[in-house]
Amino acid sequence: MNPHALEVPGGAYLDVFDLPTALIRVIEDLRFVYAGGYYVGSLTKSKFVPGLPLAQRLSRLCGLGLRCILLDLYGAKRFLYGERVTNEHVVRFSEGLAVVVDSQGEAIGWGIGRRVRLKTRVEVRVEPVKDLGWYLRRGG
After folding, report:
1. At 43, is the pLDDT very low, low, confident or very high (cuts 50, 70, 90)?
2. Contacts for 17 with CB less than 8 Å, ≥ 6 apart
3. pLDDT at 140 (0 to 100)
4. Is 6 helix (H, G, I), strand (E, B) or coil?
5. In this predicted model, which residue has the larger pLDDT, 39 or 115?
6. Which residues contact residue 58 at a Cβ distance below 8 angstroms, ignoring those fewer than 6 apart?
7. CA 10: distance to chain centroid?
8. What distance in Å separates the CA atoms of residue 56 and residue 68, rounded to the nearest whole number?
9. Can you list the domains of the chain with their CATH numbers?
């Protein structure tokens, strides 16, 4: 992988792409380049936000040790609306940042899995970081 950050003019972030080595040489000679190669995510001053294409590419590794969260149909719908998903709609859970997939194994975004101790039980929660529905809600 050859990560390369491209500045978005007027933006408060950098887009990060995986670029073939030959393409890096070409881009260095150009004045304004907004995209190139395979989109990996965006980088702000405080954090890296992985992109949806990366989640889709990595989802095939879900059964092979990659952190993934599997949601049922209703949980996937809530997740795509940018809402938290809890216990009853989480089929397979992983703590921390994970690829979130629907019941067909299709990547629907990135989420953070947490176990939260309540008075009488422990609740599993999945908070969306970036989901496919984001493009529709924000016009991305």
Report:
1. confident
2. 3, 4, 5, 6, 35, 36, 37, 38, 39, 40
3. 55
4. strand
5. 115
6. 66, 99, 107
7. 24
8. 12
9. 3-50 (no CATH), 52-138 (2.30.130.10)
Q: What is the pLDDT of residue 22?
A: 74
The C-alpha atoms of residue 12 and residue 19 are separated, in whole angstroms, by 22
Choose between 43 and 80: higher pLDDT: 80
Q: How far apart are the first and last CA of the chain?
A: 25
Ramachandran bin of 76, using left for φ above 0, alpha for ψ from -120 to 50, beta for the remaining angles: alpha
- This prediction's pTM: 0.84
Residues 6+ apart with CB under 8 A from 64: none
Q: How far is CA 102 from CA 34, 67, 120, in A?
A: 31, 14, 29
What order of strands is seen across the sheet that includes strand 107-117? 85-86, 122-131, 107-117, 96-101, 68-71, 90-92
Residue 9 has pLDDT above 90, yes or no: no
